[in-house]
Amino acid sequence: MTCFMCKGNLESKTSTFMVDLGNCIIIIKDVPSEICSQCGEISYSNNVALQLQKIINSMRKTITEIAVVHYSDRVA
C-alpha cells in the first residue's frame, strides 16, 4: 500500500493514539497502524478504527483527567 498523502510506502507497525475529549485525555498505546516510511502519516484499518471508537466510548465514563490504556488489553 502507498500513503495517500505522499505516495510513500506504508509499513505495518504500532503507534500511540491520543484524543482530547475536553474533560479527559485518552492515550491508547500499541495500536496496530500503517505508518508511511517517507512522511510518517499514520492510518488505521477500518476494524482498528472501530475498536478505537469503542475504547474511547467506554473510557468516556471514567472520572479521570488522563487515561492511558493498551490497545490489546481493551480489545477482546
Q: What is the count of β-strands?
A: 4
Oligomeric state of the chains in view = single chain
Q: Regions with pLDDT < 50 over 5+ consecutive residues?
A: none
Radius of gyration: 14 Å
Structural class, by secondary structure, is alpha+beta
Approximate strand percentage: 35-45%
Q: Which range best describes the helical content: under 10%, 10-25%, 25-40%, 40-55%, 55-70% or over 70%?
A: 10-25%
Main beta-sheet annotation:
4 strands, mixed
Cα-to-Cα separation, first versus last residue:
27 Å
Written overview of the protein:
The protein is an alpha+beta fold and 76 residues long. Strand 2 (25-36) and strand 3 form a beta hairpin. 24% of the residues lie in helices and 39% in strands. Strands 1, 2, 3 and 4 form a 4-stranded mixed beta sheet that branches. The longest helix is centred in the C-terminal third of the chain and has 14 residues, at 46-59.
Short overview:
By secondary structure, the protein is α+β, with helices and mostly antiparallel strands.
Task: Give the helix/strand layout.
Elements: E1 10-20, E2 25-36, E3 42-43, H1 46-59, E4 66-70, H2 71-74
Parallel strand pairs: 2-4
Antiparallel strand pairs: 1-2, 2-3
What keywords describe this structure?
alpha+beta, 4 strands, 4-stranded mixed β-sheet, single chain, 76 residues
